[in-house]
Design brief:
The chain contains 13 helices and 17 strands. The chain has helices at 2-20, 25-39, 67-85, 145-190, 210-215, 226-232, 235-244, 289-324, 333-363, 376-394, 413-429, 460-463, 487-497, and strands at 44-51, 54-61, 94-98, 117-125, 128-137, 195-200, 205-208, 250-256, 262-272, 278-287, 372-375, 397-402, 408-411, 435-443, 446-453, 502-507, 511-519. 45% of the residues lie in helices and 23% in strands. The N and C termini lie far apart (102 Å). Strands 3-2-1-5-4 form a five-stranded mixed beta sheet, sandwiched between helices. The protein is α+β, with helices and mostly antiparallel strands. Strand 4 and strand 5 form a beta hairpin.
Length: 530
């Protein structure tokens, strides 16, 4: 008996080692059933494992038995499983797998010998019943108490090993899914017509598709070093803007000289986990060189046409004015009324042409700035006075806010008045009640100006297009002043020529705030004329 206990003890120790050498349950269970006769004598042993509403019945024939005997053992095992797990697995939901059925010769079976001994031990680990381990025999009273005690210890070790193997199977399965998805993702990325770069939370590049490497002229051996190139280069501004705002998209256009001259549009989107923590950034690169060239040709065409229209418009206006003044003879009241309408439309057309000329000059960088040290407080007060009659007419309040009494910036005074006039005029168009506030703040190294209103606001979708040419937001059909949709593009262009930054924030149906910065001095070259 002592020798027998030593053999069983050694076998129980080997269970763990055997489990570690396997990647899934099936070969391990085969080994367990094959070794079970060492622990306890029997004719048929089996493990019934629960798998959801189904189960799998693994069989090992230690002695030949009949089909009727095998089915009886299976039914008893199902009954024991349902009792242990409080489930109701049906016989039809049980898949049978016999490891050595071919080795059991039915010719040797005494079909009249029924099952006389049966024992089922639940496979329990961490409070969960994984299934049952059953042994049976045609001999009565075969399973002695001390034998069953050793068998139960053996079963406990088997349950621990099966639980570990099932967990390992899930890990392997998830790894295969991840690997498959990763391959599919890389295939999809490699076929994109746009360049794609993905970075982690530390702004290190973790993926770059072939299109992006071609756009940037990178060789395969350079891809690993691409992080420093981007972070120290143009992507540093993108990451900085994403870090300092809650924007879901940052867009920038950059000009490249190599590997070939092209203009790239960068769209950067932050990736966040369920807790809102930044876990990386997806960066899309699109070649817009052709679009820019078409835009340049269109701008040149508009500029040429606008210049050609200016002279005849001046002549037409002068003629209409002379008729209105009676220089060319007396006019009736009705004639004067129509002539005034013509004069208003001529002036409106002139403003449109001036806007078109301004935007074309800005894009061609032909506007000559005349920067000087100007007091922004004085500029804002002058602009406010110009708009006072229109504010009274709409029953709106115009507020001003200054961080100091005198705030000096280095800028072209006339151009800054043009920018402020455009922003305040826009706010007046789309603010029905409440107030508009012009603010000037003296900050380190720069001056920040903003125009805030309690008007209609701009949707998140439209915010991305707010500085595009010929864009008008919040326009309601019907009479009223109509613009060209160029004002904000011109204002942004003027500020950028001063080496400042222009931005917008808004909440639909609540408020809008346009802000721009100006340098305090020309130490960085700002405002020297372009």
């Amino acid at each position: 008996m002592a020798e027998e206990k030593i053999l069983v003890t050694d076998l129980i120790k080997e269970v763990g080692t055997q489990a570690l050498s396997q990647l899934n349950c099936e070969p391990f269970i085969k080994w367990v059933l094959e070794k079970t006769p060492v622990v306890i004598d029997h004719d048929l042993s089996a493990i019934l494992l629960l798998e959801g509403n189904k189960a799998k019945f693994y069989l090992w024939f230690n002695q030949p038995v009949s089909h009727e005997y095998t089915r009886e053992c299976k039914l008893k095992a199902i009954e024991a499983l349902n009792a242990a797990t409080k489930t109701s697995v049906l016989e039809g939901a049980v898949e049978v797998l016999a490891f050595n059925e071919g080795e059991a010769s039915l010719d040797q079976v005494d079909k009249t010998s029924p099952m006389a001994s049966f024992f089922a031990a639940p496979l329990i680990e961490r409070g969960n019943c994984l299934g049952v381990f059953v042994i049976s025999s045609r001999k009565p009273n075969l399973f002695l108490a001390y034998k069953l005690n050793m068998f139960n210890v053996f079963v406990n070790q088997v349950a621990l090993a099966i639980d570990s193997l099932k967990a390992r199977e899930k890990v392997v399965q998830q790894a295969r899914i991840i690997e498959r998805d990763s391959v599919n993702m890389k295939l999809a990325f490699s076929g994109m017509s746009e360049g794609l770069i993905m970075t982690d939370e530390f702004n290190e590049v973790i993926l770059i598709n072939p299109r992006a490497t071609k756009m940037l002229g990178l060789m395969p051996e350079q891809i690993q070093a691409v992080s420093k190139t981007f972070i120290l280069g143009f992507l540093s501004e993108v990451f900085k803007e994403l870090a300092n705002t809650d924007k879901q998209l940052v867009r920038k256009d950059i000009d490249l000289d190599s590997p070939q001259k092209m203009t790239l549009r960068i769209d950067a989107t932050p990736a966040k986990d369920s807790k809102g923590k930044n876990i990386g950034t997806a960066i899309l690169l699109r070649d817009i060189t052709l679009e820019k060239e078409v835009d340049r040709l269109k701008t040149e065409f508009i500029s040429t046409v606008s210049h050609e229209l200016r002279t005849p418009l001046t002549t037409i206006r002068e003629t209409v004015s002379q008729v209105l003044d009676g220089i060319l003879g007396q006019t009736t009241e009705q004639q004067r009324e129509f002539l005034l309408i013509c004069l208003e439309d001529i002036d409106r057309l002139t403003r449109i042409i001036n806007d078109l000329l301004d935007i074309s000059k800005i894009e061609a960088r032909k506007i000559q700035l005349k920067p000087q040290m100007i007091d922004m407080v004085s500029v804002v007060k002058n602009v406010s006075m110009i708009f006072q009659p229109r504010f009274r007419e709409k029953a709106l309040e115009l507020k001003t806010s200054f961080s100091r009494e005198n705030i000096v910036a280095y800028a072209d005074k006339d151009k800054i008045i043009q920018v402020l006039t455009n922003l305040v005029g826009n706010s007046l168009k789309f603010t029905g009640k409440g107030y508009i506030q012009i603010s000037v703040d003296d900050k380190e190294g720069l001056v920040e100006c903003s125009v805030f209103d309690t008007g209609r606001g701009i949707s998140e979708e439209d915010l991305l297009k707010v500085f595009s040419k010929f864009q008008q937001f919040g326009r309601v059909d019907g009479p009223g002043e109509r613009g060209t949709g160029l004002g904000l593009s011109i204002a942004k262009g003027i500020i950028e020529m001063h080496h400042g930054k222009f931005s917008v924030q808004s909440r639909l149906n609540e408020w809008t705030k346009f802000s721009f910065t100006l340098p305090k001095t020309n130490a960085n070259g700002g405002g020297d004329g372009e």
